Amino acid sequence: MFKKILLLSLITLGLAACGGGDIKPEVAASSESRDQIKIVGSSTVYPFATTVAENFGRSTLFKTPIVESTGSGGGLKLFCSGLGDNHPDITNASRRIKASEVERCAENGIDDIVEVKVGYDGIVMANSRKSNQMNLSLKDVFLALAKDVPDGSGGLKPNNYKTWKDVNPNLINNKIEVMGPPPTSGTRDAFVELAMEGGCKTFDWIKALKKTDKQAYKSLCHTIREDEHFIEAGENDNLIVQKLNANPNALGIFGFSFLEQNADSVQGSTINAMPPTFDNIAEGSYPVSRSLYFYVKKDNVNKVPGINEYLVEFMSERASGPDGYLAEKGLIPMNPDEHLKWKSSVLSLEPLMLN
Question: Which of 181, 201, 219, 224 ranks highest by number of CB atoms within 10 Å?
Answer without folding.
Answer: 181
